[in-house]
Amino acid sequence: GLVDIHAHGSMASNEITPQQNFEQYSALAFGVTTIHDPSNDSTEVFSHAELQKAGRVVGPRTFSTGTILYGAIYPGYTAIIDSYEDALFHVRRLKELGAITVKSYNQLRRDSRQQVIAAGEELGIMVVPEGGMKFQHNLTHIMDGHTTIEHSIPIARGYDDVLQFWSATGTVYSPTFGVAYGGLSGETYWYDRTNVWENEHLLRYVPRSRVIPQSIRRTTAPDEHYNHFEVARFAKALRDAGVGVVIGAHGQREGLAAHWELWMLEQGGFTEWEALRGGTIDAARALGMDGQIGSVEVGKLADLAIIDGNPLDDIRSSEHVVYSMINGRLYDTLTMNQIGNETDEREPFFFELPDGDVFPPAVQRATEAKAAYFGWRH
To answer: What's the pTM?
Structure first.
């Protein structure tokens, strides 16, 4: 199954966890079996993660940083770190909530960032930063030992000095091509080049009212206006130098965007095999989970995506997932009913009921405000 290490999305509403979350069903139906969310509401994402682990809700394995450690002044987010003791307090409280990572988000002082990393090392917690800032910030993120760089580096390409420097570290690169700062986004490209509103697999699990407005009236532009091509070519150079490069769909188009990430790796020069590794074993290794997930091996957890086609011949066939297995439970992706040794029929989603695919204006405003608050849209 695919491992998406930068996957945002709503797990609950006002701390009420739905029994069926269409975003999570859609992700699993597209073969995404593990997600890592580097910015979410701690009270909601960890509750969902525990329910998923217990088999009470259906969706990918869920891991998160919880609420970010924000360096700016923003109510509910700000984490003032003026000492190692401050950093230890913040990392410990998130670990106790269920975090496997913490997100050091725009902590502008380098000593503050170093203190978070030191606290993470003491407590066994990985530390990821927010990327897309100034280039010198990204270099010190790498130098100081962050687990990953999230979002694309804000330069068109790096030369030998950057490649040699980065390859000497263990920091993994998650470019999030769907965002790809510096030009039109990768997500916009796939709306431009494919008829997303006609993707039957997506529309089984996502309300048409969510898909059609963004995809049917679409931006169009030549390839050179889409920044993800340059980002992907630089990512290929990094991989050739020994840097791990992994997928992160950023919570864009529910499950389908994880495949867009694979396809954009290929557009940057990755072989199909290298791209698939970026969405499986390399991504699992970035999360420290390659002993449990990320490849088909004896003793690993039974997370599988069964595809109609061979993505080693054509990476674009990766989206044709016919069965998904999570922890040994097998699902037919046409219905997302559990089949096999144990069966369970899915209840209808609200939008499958008569007149159910309607979002009142207040709900739409609340949804958009939540996405903006947690940085799920750039």
So the answer is: 0.95
